[in-house]
Amino acid sequence: MARNTQKKRSSRRGAAKRSIRRNADSILSTLFALAVACAAAYAFYTYVNESTYFRIKMIKVTGTNLVDANDVVAASGLTNEDIILLLPTAEVRSKVNALPYIERCRVTRVFPDMVAIAVEERVPVATLALRNQYFEIDANLNVLKKIDEHARHTGPLITQVPGLGNIEPGAKLEQPSLREAVDVWLAFRDTHVAETVTVSEIAAPSTSDVRMYCNELDYEIRWGRGRAIQQAANLDTVWEYKGGNLECTEYVDLRFDRDVACL
After folding, report:
1. Checking DSSP bridges between strand 209-214 and strand 199-206, what pairing results, if any?
2. Beta bridge partners of 105
3. Which of 7, 71, 211, 233 is the least buried, fewest Cβ under 10 Å from its Cβ?
4. Which CATH number applies to 58-121?
5. What's the confidence (pLDDT) of residue 182?
């Protein structure tokens, strides 16, 4: 019995040694394969970095109208020293999107040596006046550019907006009365009235008191909160019915549902 037990122990020890050898061989084979892969990767990386074949030779910018394409290239940070295979497209996209006039962009590698940047621009719709400073803004209240007070401005001047501190191009504004003023302007410019009068200023001291001033009219147009499209349609209806002669001296008030008050 003792002899059989000894044989079993000896057999188990032999099996264990063979298993260890197999595991060691497997580990050595894996390490060798990793070493070969690392060597190949390093050789390829060295080739890519030293070769001029994959270096960027052209940056193509499309979609620009208000923004200079050279400004887009400068913002991207790309040069002909960059390698197209190693191009961090998300980082480049983030840099270009930081330009105030850029709504979004797409960055694409075009092998072997070109990068294509397609942009969508923000479009200015009005000019915000703040303490003798003037800023172009888009329909989403993004501040696009600071302009000189004597320069030609886009759309009407929006004035008397409360709650504005110091602002800079690239800022996104959230003031409710500014939102109302822009909505009023966007609704008004699609009317027939807008074909015959020029809006010079929209004062927005509150969301329920937005006042529009036109060069050709002796009276102001008062707008209420949240119904700019309907109020614009009401104004259009009365304007066409009266042939453009509303006989008002102080104001037209659109804040009474479908009624239009005139004084």
Report:
1. antiparallel
2. 119
3. 7
4. 3.10.20.310
5. 98
